[in-house]
Write a structure and sequence with these properties.
Layout: H1 18-47, H2 54-73, H3 77-94, H4 103-121, H5 131-157, E1 173-176, E2 181-185, E3 190-195, E4 213-221, E5 225-229, E6 236-248, E7 251-257, E8 268-272
Antiparallel strand pairs: 1-2, 1-8, 2-3, 3-4, 4-5, 5-6, 6-7, 7-8
Helix pairs in contact: 1-2, 1-4, 2-3, 2-4, 3-4, 4-5
Length: about 280
């Protein structure tokens, strides 16, 4: 008499939770616009790669790593997210303001973290998950919420100021139009713009309203343009430097012009009012 002994049924992997699937596909879908941002930053760098400075080449390598990592993360989120974070670290070492100085880098970092969180939530094994895994998933979801909130705040605030290079120090100081408009350019890369209520300034040449004072980040593009930026979604004012800072008798003057289309007659003559600066 023989007795058939049935082999124990193999344990089936536990099905993935709905939250895990949502996070997985959320990470994949959000990576598409972020990947476009990476390509927008990468392509111009590759075009001029042969004549680029060392920091630009390092940025190019970092952006290539970001693109490769995010593509791999569609199949292997842990691997792709790790490559993405490592590549972002390379980019951060070349940026004067770190990650917060570039909203694109913030977006890349959040996307890499999202892929890593997705890998934790979608982890499963043939054996029942240990109690610690449930705790890890809870922590991952909490971290995801924190990253989303922090990322939204950082991106909304926009990049931080970039210090004005030494060769552009002649632009620093308090500049006054004599008609109720004043702009103070600091070494830290900020511009404090003030307009009096009774000012007489062409609307095209001021980024503020009468009676308002506002702080912007300032960017000097060569000796041709001066840009004021307020947050990633805020106001932007681009001035053509019609006349660079120069001595006019005992005064130091420069002329900015933000008319669009450009009209030379709309130049705003500014005099540096801090005599201690030469």
């Amino acid at each position: 008499m023989t007795t058939d002994v049935q082999a124990p049924a193999e344990a089936r992997p536990a099905p993935k939770s709905r939250v895990a699937k949502i996070v997985r596909w959320g990470a994949r879908l959000t990576s598409l616009p972020v990947l476009v941002l990476a390509l927008i930053s990468l392509l111009p760098t590759l075009v001029h790669f042969s004549v680029s400075a060392r920091d630009d080449r390092m940025n190019a390598f970092g952006l290539c790593g970001v693109c490769v990592g995010f593509l791999l993360a569609w199949r292997w989120p842990a691997v792709g997210g790790g490559i993405g974070l490592a590549s972002i670290g390379v980019i951060a070492t070349q940026a004067e303001g770190g990650l917060t100085g570039d909203p694109f880098s913030v977006a890349f970092t959040l996307q890499a973290i999202l892929f890593l969180i997705s890998s934790v939530l979608n982890f499963r094994s043939e054996r029942p998950a240990p109690p610690a895994m449930g705790l890890m998933k809870g922590v991952a979801i909490g971290l995801l919420a924190i990253c989303v909130i922090a990322g939204a705040v950082i991106i909304y605030r926009g990049p931080g100021p970039t210090p004005v290079p030494k060769e552009k120090e002649r632009y620093l100081g308090v500049w006054d139009s004599g008609t109720g408009f004043q702009i103070e350019l600091t070494r830290a890369g900020e511009a404090k713009v003030t307009q009096a209520r009774d000012s007489k300034v062409a609307a095209c040449n001021t980024p503020v309203t009468p009676g308002e004072t506002k702080v912007f980040n300032v960017t000097l593009r060569g000796d041709d343009f001066l840009e004021l930026v307020s947050g990633a979604l805020g106001d932007t004012k681009a001035y053509r430097i019609q006349q660079r800072p120069h001595k006019d008798g005992k005064q130091v003057k420069m002329t900015l012009n933000a008319s669009d289309p450009y009209q030379g007659t709309n130049g705003l003559v500014l005099v540096r009012s801090d005599p201690a600066r030469k």
